[in-house]
Amino acid sequence: MTDRAVVVVRAGALTTVQDLGRSGYAHLGVPRSGALDPAAVRLVNRLVGNPETAAVLETTVDGCALRPRRTVTVAVGGAPCPVRVDGHPAAWGTAVRVPAGSVLEIGAATRGLRAYVAIGGGVDVAPVLGSRSTDLLSGLGPPPAAEETVLPLGPDTATAVRGSVDAPPWPGPSDELVLRVRFGPRDDWFTAAALRTLVTRAYRVSSASNRIGLRLEGPALERALRGELASEGMVLGAVQVPPDGRPVVFLADHPTTGGYPVVGVVREADLGAAAQAVPGTPVRFTPVR
Amino acid sequence: MRTTAPRALRVGERALLVELAGGEETEAFHAELLRRRAAGTLPAVREIVPAARTVLLDGVADPDRLAAELSDWEPGPLPARVGGAVEIPVRYDGPDLAEVAALWGVSVEAAVRIHTAAEFRVAFCGFAPGFGYLTGLDERYGVPRRATPRTAVPAGSVALAGPYTGVYPRSSPGGWQLIGTTDAVLWDTGREPAALLAPGTRVRFAAEGVVTGGGR
């Protein structure tokens, strides 16, 4: 048995393997998937000397615990959370050495939702269509981590000086989520009042949100056109409006086609913050060109 | 064919949704995109996603410029039908087959003949990896979705909804009318290509255990 692996001691609410996603298969119905907060993934990978494309673990709400079979360098980022090695406090947001057999405990997020754990060498599960990401919509990639799951690691080839990179410390999610939205392609399916509602009224993050979409509670958007839209291609950040009128912002595991009209598209740069917004967070859309 | 210029709608910062007059125009436009991509004359695009009457171009550096280019394109001809169709063997034993035959106003045997006589084409994929929306049945054979979707449709189910035929690549919830079952593997990531059906693939369904006139 190889010692180039970590064992999951506590899986947490939802811990998945993620990288920067699957590209180029949307025409076959394959979602892009990948980490919901890709900036955090790039940063933690750099902290341990991995390529930015290395696979990491994405935790949800309450972290996870891991036991490496060999001594590894790890970095925890994304949502701020307590980090412990064999019960001793360790640093968040910087490279940490975890001796073979010790337990790395990633605690519950103190702000935000999703922590990212990079391990030197990267999580080396078999790639599927060019990515190691778990896709919860279509079941591609490794299943979510469970207790006793053994995650193989790649060879640690880091040569860079580790421990710090020239990135500003992330302040954590703000109290209000502001999403810049560009109207279209189906804004003409909605009344002028509905478009005003979207960019003037307050929404809240619903607890029904997941890796597929950020679901919102708030005023319903009224349609100007009835009838059914023929299925069409969907993009990351699309604000799709199902029949109940409550907008859903598509995140990484979104379906590749859909039949509900997309009133607008959120800037990709704002989606990392969307993925870190806890249920109940106020949401405001601001229109951009 | 109508020569209406395609209408390109902006989708966020990096994408265009090109609207076409109908299914045939969409297939022709999609084929034209693939030809241009193969010839290296299309700007870099991350995804080309055809659908019922649109093609999405995602991951485009300069969508407005591409939109302007598209408006000058001559509509390309429909791709030539060369090579054989993928043949999918089907046991026509689906729980909704009798209902579909009744909707069509024909016997079950005649419904099977209608379905096996048609040549299909994968118009687009979606819903699940490897799930193709196949066109080819005459318009009058369109059927509604079931009022109440099933919570679990078995993998390999051959099903109808609207103008489309589809085959479920894996077990999933679904509201289509189930007319049969196939053992064909629609999706296998251990295989290259993973998808049996991709946009543009031609398909025929063959009734398993039914001996037709000149066939084996």
Automatic annotation (TrEMBL), chain B:
Keywords: ATP-binding, Hydrolase, Nucleotide-binding. SMART domains: AHS1. Signal peptide: none annotated. GO terms for molecular function: hydrolase activity. Residues 6-197 form the Carboxyltransferase domain. PANTHER family: 5-OXOPROLINASE SUBUNIT B. This is Allophanate hydrolase subunit 1. It comes from Streptomyces flavochromogenes. The lineage of its organism: Bacteria, Bacillati, Actinomycetota, Actinomycetes, Kitasatosporales.
